[in-house]
Amino acid sequence: MDRYLLVASTICFLAAVVHTVIELRATVFRPMRFNFFAIGVGFIFQTAFLWIRGQELARCPLTNLFEVFIFLAWSVALIYMLVGPVYRLSLMGAFTAPLVVLLQGFALLAPIDTRHPVKVPANFWLEFHASISLVAYGAFALAGIAGVMYLVQEQQLKTHKLHSIFYHLPPLTDLFSAITRLLWWGFALYTIGIVSGFFTGHPLPRVQVFAALGVWLLYAVILQGRHLRWLAPKRVAALCILGFGVALALLWGITFTAEMYSLP
What we know:
The chain is mainly alpha-helical. The protein has 9 helices and no strands. The protein is globular, with a radius of gyration of 19 Å.
């Protein structure tokens, strides 16, 4: 039952992708309110899936790589739903939906939904540590998406080849402001996630610690370079894309909550 909800969610995000492609092929690119609606409905299905899986597990649904990918996709959609209207980044949905489709599509097709035995009750700090860290990943993902939007607009201005999509992109200054704030939100949430990991009552695996600190240091360098104006806005945008790629590649370093619970 829960996987049907996930399939329905993926179809909603895929509908937003298809709608974007159709609009891009049209002579005139128009604002896409449909995308925000489709993503909103997909987000509801995601939330329902996570709630049902959580009730079944009696804990936060982060017990294997499958659930981690779904929770990450949910975090990306959550941050978009919060940030898009505030910064008038409605077009960001056209860039967000493909990422969610890729994450959920991989989770559904790959044989990674492996259940782990659970021997002890849920640990609040462990679940908080894992969940808040993945919400931070959502903020980093949106910063990377805003970085893509920044580079697309900057390239069109540089080459003087303006597609109709250009007129629906926010000004570069607004995009860079959104990138900066998303970086700070992600960095703050990720810092809280790392600190909370030391209150779990379990020894943290070295691989997980080094991976987490590596991601933290990478974004700290980006923010420091931005604050001291060592990095041009274009370079910050590019590093946001690279940073999320590195963070995503390090998901294998996560020790899932069920595995931690099963430690003697």
